[in-house]
Write a structure and sequence with these properties.
Elements lengths: L3 H10 L4 H8 L3 H8 L7 H10 L4 H4 L4
Length: 65
């Protein structure tokens, strides 16, 4: 599962602000803010989209069944 810090770190590594990050993932700005504040967590589909942004961390963050 992605933590708030994981998501924030990924966004920073990609040099994206929250609106650009949200647009790239196809989610709302509010959703990204909730993730980064730890008030919500991405769905499995959203976790896959996050991992697509940085494939090297796919095996660590998305549980494949």
């Amino acid at each position: 599962m992605w933590t708030a810090q994981d998501i924030r770190n990924l966004r920073h590594r990609l040099n994206m602000d929250i609106p650009k990050f949200a647009e790239h993932l196809g989610v709302t700005i509010g959703e990204v803010e909730l993730w980064e504040y730890g008030m919500s967590h991405p769905s499995v589909w959203e976790e896959t989209k996050l991992a697509d942004l940085e494939p090297s961390i796919l095996r660590d963050k998305v549980r494949l069944t």
